[in-house]
Structure formats: C-alpha cells, structure tokens
C-alpha cells in the first residue's frame, strides 16, 4: 500500500490546470504551423498566424491562451495500491480553485443550470472521471474545456444499418452545422459504440489524443481520414471565414456496444485544445 | 495584406456605411462589454420602461467575459464569446441605436435584418487570440452588474483592436460568402 | 376489427384482406432476423447465392431469442420483438424475396409502407415485453443458420402454433397506425405551441 498525501494531489492538479491554460501542446502547435502552410485563403493564413502568435504570448507571459478557461475536467487512473490520507474529491477541487484564483483564470462554473445560474466563483465543481487500475501510481490528465466548442458537440443513437458511411456523414454534418462557432480549425473527437454516457465521455477523451496519430485499427483510421477530408472540403476555414483548413484532425475511438445499437458521439474541440498530464 | 481601416468610437452613420464585409479594421476608443446575463438584464429593463445603465447609441458592444486581470495588465485574456447566444436580445438594442457588435460566429436572420434596418455592423474578433487582445486593452472599468463577475458590463479603452467586418449594414455576410469559395 | 388465424406458407390474397387493428395468430414456420441477419441476407443475394431458407410466403420476426443448447438441438426459452425501425432500409428487399408478414414492435416508415402495398405484405406488432407468453407459442426450434453472427442475430427457423396475439399495425392498403399517431401528435404540438 502506497500512502499519498492529499496535498500532493492538490498541488499537482493546480500545476496541471495552470500549465494547460498557458501552454499549448507541441502536437497542436505543430499542426497549426503545418496548417498555415497548407491554407490557401489569405484571411485564413492571417488567422492562423495570429493564433500562433497568441500561443507564444500566452506561454511567455503566463496568461490564459483563451479567456474561456473552461470547465475543469479530469481523467484519473488511480492505482489500487494507493491510499490517500484525506478526502480525494476535496483535494482535487481545492487544486482547481487555487489554479483558477491564483492563476487569473476565469471562473465560468454556475450552480443550477436553469434558474439561478449563480457563479460558483471557484470554477468548481471539477468533473472527475476515475478508473481504478493495478499499481501504485496516480495518472492525472486534465483538460479545461471551453464551451464555444462544447456547445457544438452532438450525439446520435445510430443503428447498425447506418454503417461507416453513416458515421462519417454524421461527423461531417456536425462540423458543418457548427460553422464558425467552435473556433476552427477544430480537433474532432468521436466515439462509436458503448452507451450514451460512455460514448460521450470517450469522445471527449478522444479530443485529447495526439494530433497526427491514427486509430491503430486500419478500418477506423480510414474513417478518420475520410471524415477529415470531407470536413476540410466544406470550406469553412480558420475562424469560419473561408479556407481549406477547417479541422486539424479527427480522432475516432470505439467501444463494445449492444447488438441493437451504434451510438455515435462527436465532441468538438477548438484549436486551443488544452490539456496537461502527470504521474504521481 | 490588404489595407486596414482605422476606426474610432462612437461610430457615425458615415463610418457604418463605408464599412464593407471583409474589411480589416483596427478599432480605437471606448467599447462596452456584455454577454448573456448582462443582455438579459438590459432587455428586462427595457421591457419595464426603465433607463439602461449604459449609453447604447453609437456604441460598440463586445461579447466577452474576460479572465481576471494579471499584474501588469489592464485586462485579462479577452477573446470573443460566441455571438448567437445574444441574438434574442440584439434587435431591441439596435433599435436603440447600438452601431457595432464584436463577437464570433453566426448571427440570426432577425439580427441581420435589424442591422440593415438600423444601420449597424458586426465585427468578428478571432476566437482564442485572447492573450494578444488583452494587451491591446489600455483601461478597463466595471460600469454595471459587478455581481456578475466576468459577465459584468465593462468599459474598455482599446487601441488598434484588430477585427474583421463580418456582416455589414447591407447584410453582406462573410460566413455565407467565403466558405463556398473553398468548398470542394 | 377481426380476429384471423393464418398458416404458412401465406397467400397474398389473404394478406391483402387484413386491415389495421385486426388481430392475427400465425401457425407454421416463422424466421427471425435482426440487424446483422438482414445485412447478411443482402450480401448473400448480391453474391448471386441462395439463402439457407426459402422465404416465399414466409414471416420475418424482428427478434433474437433466448435459447438453451441441448444434445438434440436448441430449446427456446423466451422470445420478444426488437425495435423494427432499424430494419427499415431492407423492406423492399425482403418483399422481393416473397416475405408476406413482418412481425416487430414500434412500427416502420414510409419505405416499408410502400413495400407492403407493392408486394401484398403486412406489419404485425407483437406485444413488447411479453417474451415468456410468446415463447410458449413456439413448439420447437426447427433449425438455425448463421449462428456465427451470435445467438440473437442468427436466423432462427421456428415452428409455431397460434403465435400471437399480433396486431396489424401497417396494412397493404398503405394505412399505418404509427403514421396516424405521429400526424395527430404533430397537429397537437402546433396547437400547443
């Protein structure tokens, strides 16, 4: 049994949310650089160049890449040999609160979503997904998810007869409907299978996969390629002002599902696909 | 890059008529901020026949909820929020003389018709370029609804705020005209 | 509304007499097929091969049974209908194979209604969630094909005695209970909002 202090978790969570909000990942940065070479629209090129400059300013001056510092989501793999000496959920939320208060990050969480909508002033509660795994480590993957892109996500309970073509069309249609709203060029995370809940969570996780890597199953990789090509043929472009780079990448994950179903969840992420990870 | 039109606030009708969809602009002067919650309160005041806390005539509203201000800055990261959520509230403000809106994303038919009727322009700021926009904000004060935190109405003094005329007063809309040029 | 007892192989002239609301009991052979079963039938026919069962005059039941394997074969435990709309793309195809009755739940759409009119077929709604009662009407499992698709998705050929009660939800004149409910609902929504 490995004893881990709750304060260690709090500190690491704080560090990761600050990092995620200030420094964009290498894979996304490189993808935008490549996109600015591929983009044929003049406005599109300007937008991509502003985006690159913004990443630089944010990282150097430790200021939020985007004012929408999102809702705080964590995917955690908790080793079953780990014993935490205090309240786990409280420690995580304390870490989020410290990051958002001390890091000049915007607090965008409201209490009840329909009536009062009162700001919680801490960006809490954090949204925590925990898998218990063998071992004695804690793996943390955090992502601040902005809602411009989250609001453009969709899911459908498709049927087996819809097939790969139906899935690709649904992905492309989702991006088409979103238009300029999710701050293209976007990263599209998809999950096919599971249940409604599992598909949506897995699609969110899929947006965090490394940009430029395909699903190891060649049939799913093919769907990823087809979807990306069709999306970029829509002409929406950077900031939706016209161009041939509308999405940087499409990541498709799949999960076992029921014989009667084929749930498809599409989670859209803006170009500022912010995430950070660490192992305790 | 094409010529950048320098404009100052408040916006006159002449400036409005001169701006065409696709123009790159650089805005200097005072602008107001407002998003969902503030707009709801403003419209409720109008419905009750009460006075608004800000002068809307000739002004620009920037749809933004900024991040808190770090030391050495006048404003935190302040990129645009998605405009369509303010659509239900916009025609009433345009009727009162609002001349410009800065945001990102599509607007409804009703908003565009009201822009044509009242002579107003919708500018697109680039989403996610928030850190750079913050550097261009030279002063910031909360003028209404402080309790709303990031959703309060701020008055910013901006210098050379970069934006693109997305929908002009004639209803010409870049989101409609540009993508088909790149569609395959 | 009448109560009708039919036996397979079914004749078009008898099917064309049925109207929505009629209650039907079927004796003889029914064949189950769900999502993968239908897709595999299409693959087989497209390759120019024959299906393992002749569906002329037959009944397709949208279902996947619970069975128990015995030395002598399979014993059916329970069987209930699955949601038919998933099989909507295949109605003309199975009509062309000579199928006369589709049994399922939840109804089907305009493509199916057209196929029912064209080929003289009906869609019967089996009572959902009554898998034990329906299972009792199955005398024996005659055969099973394509078991590699998994027990629920295989083609089960079942000998049945007065299988039902089954209600005619869509008939060969183009009438559909499901369409009327939907249209009435839409009118109400317009009124409400």
Q: What features would you highlight for this structure?
A:
heterotrimer; B: 184 residues; alpha/beta; fumarase; 5-stranded mixed β-barrel; 7 helices; 26% helix; C: 193 residues; 5-stranded mixed barrel; two-stranded antiparallel ribbon
Structural write-up:
The complex is a heterotrimer of chains A (280), B (184) and C (193). By secondary structure, chain A is α/β, with parallel strands linked by helices. Chain A has helices at residues 6-22, 26-38, 42-61, 88-102, 147-150, 163-178, 196-206, 218-232; strands at 2-4, 71-79, 82-84, 127-133, 138-145, 154-158, 186-194, 247-257, 262-269, 276-279. Chain A folds into 2 domains: 2-20 and 65-145, 2-Layer Sandwich (Dihydrodipicolinate Reductase, domain 2), CATH 3.30.360; 148-273, 60s Ribosomal Protein L30, Chain: A (2-Layer Sandwich), CATH 3.30.1330. Chain A is 40% helix and 24% strand. In chain A, the strands form 3 sheets. A 4-stranded mixed beta sheet of chain A has the order 4-2-5-10. A 4-stranded mixed beta sheet of chain A has the order 6-9-7-8, sandwiched between helices. Chain B has a single domain, classed as fumarase (Alpha-Beta Barrel). Chain B has 7 helices and 7 strands, in the order βαβαβαβαβαββαα. Chain C is of the alpha/beta class. Chain C contains 6 helices and 9 strands. In chain C, the strands form 2 sheets. Chain C has a 5-stranded mixed β-barrel. The mean pLDDT of chain C is 95. At the A-B interface, helix 3 of A face helix 5, strand 7, helix 6 and helix 7 of B.
List the helices and strands and how they pair.
The complex is a heterotrimer of chains A (280), B (184) and C (193).
Chain A: E1 2-4, H1 6-22, H2 26-38, H3 42-61, E2 71-79, E3 82-84, H4 88-102, E4 127-133, E5 138-145, H5 147-150, E6 154-158, H6 163-178, E7 186-194, H7 196-206, H8 218-232, E8 247-257, E9 262-269, E10 276-279
Parallel strand pairs in A: 1-3, 2-4, 7-8
Antiparallel strand pairs in A: 2-5, 5-10, 6-9, 7-9
Helix pairs in contact in A: 1-4, 2-3, 6-8
Chain B: E1 4-8, H1 13-18, E2 24-33, H2 36-47, E3 60-62, H3 90-95, E4 100-103, H4 109-118, E5 121-124, H5 130-135, E6 137-144, E7 153-167, H6 174-177, H7 179-182
Parallel strand pairs in B: 1-2, 2-3, 3-4, 4-5
Antiparallel strand pairs in B: 2-7, 5-7, 6-7
Chain C: E1 3-7, H1 12-15, E2 23-32, H2 35-46, E3 59-61, E4 66-70, E5 73-78, H3 91-96, E6 101-104, H4 110-119, E7 122-125, H5 131-136, E8 138-145, E9 155-170, H6 177-192
Parallel strand pairs in C: 1-2, 2-3, 3-6, 6-7
Antiparallel strand pairs in C: 2-9, 4-5, 7-9, 8-9
């Amino acid at each position: 049994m490995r004893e881990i202090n709750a304060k260690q978790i709090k500190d690491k969570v704080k560090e990761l949310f600050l990092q995620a909000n200030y420094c964009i990942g290498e894979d996304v940065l490189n993808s935008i650089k490549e996109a600015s070479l591929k983009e044929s629209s003049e406005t599109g090129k300007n937008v991509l160049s502003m985006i690159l400059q913004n990443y630089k300013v944010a990282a150097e001056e430790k200021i939020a890449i985007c004012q929408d510092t999102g809702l705080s989501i964590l995917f955690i793999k908790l080793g079953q040999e780990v014993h935490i000496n205090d309240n786990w959920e409280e420690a995580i939320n304390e870490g989020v609160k410290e990051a958002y208060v001390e890091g000049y990050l915007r607090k965008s969480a409201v209490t009840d979503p329909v009536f009062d909508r009162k700001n919680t002033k801490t960006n809490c509660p954090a949204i925590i997904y925990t898998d218990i795994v063998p071992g004695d480590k804690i793996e943390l993957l955090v992502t601040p998810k902005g809602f411009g892109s989250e609001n453009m996500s969709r899911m459908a309970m498709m049927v087996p007869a819809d097939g790969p073509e139906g899935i690709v069309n649904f992905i492309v249609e989702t991006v088409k409907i979103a238009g300029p709203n999710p701050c293209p060029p976007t990263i599209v995370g998809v999950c096919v299978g599971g249940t409604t809940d599992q598909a949506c969570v897995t699609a969110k996780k899929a947006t965090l996969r490394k940009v430029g890597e395909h699903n190891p199953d060649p049939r799913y990789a093919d769907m990823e390629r087809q979807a990306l090509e069709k999306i970029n043929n829509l002409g929406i472009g950077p900031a939706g002002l016209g161009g041939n780079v509308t999405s940087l990448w499409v990541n498709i994950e799949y999960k076992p599902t029921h014989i009667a179903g084929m749930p498809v969840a599409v989670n859209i992420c803006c170009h500022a696909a912010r995430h950070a990870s660490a192992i305790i | 890059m094409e010529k950048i039109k320098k404009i100052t606030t408040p916006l006159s009708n002449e400036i409005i008529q001169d701006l065409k969809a696709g123009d790159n602009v650089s805005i200097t002067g005072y602008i107001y901020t407002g998003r969902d919650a503030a707009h709801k309160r403003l419209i409720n005041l109008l419905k009750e026949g009460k006075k608004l806390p800000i002068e809307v005539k000739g002004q620009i509203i920037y749809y933004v909820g900024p991040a808190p201000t770090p030391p050495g800055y006048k404003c935190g990261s302040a990129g645009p929020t998605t405009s369509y959520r303010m659509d239900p509230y916009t025609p009433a403000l345009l009727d009162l003389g609002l001349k410009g809106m800065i945001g990102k994303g599509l607007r409804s038919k009703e908003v565009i018709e009201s822009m044509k009727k009242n002579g107003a322009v919708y500018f697109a700021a680039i989403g996610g370029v928030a850190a750079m926009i913050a550097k261009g904000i030279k002063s910031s004060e909360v003028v209404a609804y402080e309790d709303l935190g990031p959703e309060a109405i701020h008055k910013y003094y901006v210098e050379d705020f970069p934006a693109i005329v997305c929908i002009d007063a004639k209803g010409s809309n870049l989101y409609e005209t540009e993508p088909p040029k790149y569609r395959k | 509304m009448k109560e009708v007892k039919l036996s397979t192989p079914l004749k078009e002239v008898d099917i064309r007499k049925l109207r929505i609301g009629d209650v039907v009991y079927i004796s003889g052979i029914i064949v189950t097929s769900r999502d993968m079963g239908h897709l595999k039938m299409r693959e087989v026919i497209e390759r120019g091969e024959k299906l393992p069962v002749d569906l002329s005059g037959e009944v397709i039941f949208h279902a996947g049974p619970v069975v128990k394997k015995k030395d002598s074969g399979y014993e059916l435990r329970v069987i209930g209908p699955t949601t038919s709309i998933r099989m909507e793309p295949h109605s003309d195809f199975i009509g062309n194979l000579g199928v006369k009755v589709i049994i399922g739940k939840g109804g089907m759409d305009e493509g199916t209604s057209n196929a029912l009119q064209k080929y003289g077929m009906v869609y019967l709604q089996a009572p959902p969630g009554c898998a034990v009662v329906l299972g009792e009407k199955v005398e024996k499992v005659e055969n099973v094909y394509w078991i590699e698709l998994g027990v629920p998705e295989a083609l089960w050929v079942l000998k049945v005695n007065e299988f039902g009660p089954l209600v005619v939800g869509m008939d060969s004149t183009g009438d559909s209970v499901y369409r009327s409910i939907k249209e009435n609902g839409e009118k109400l929504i317009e009124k409400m909002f």
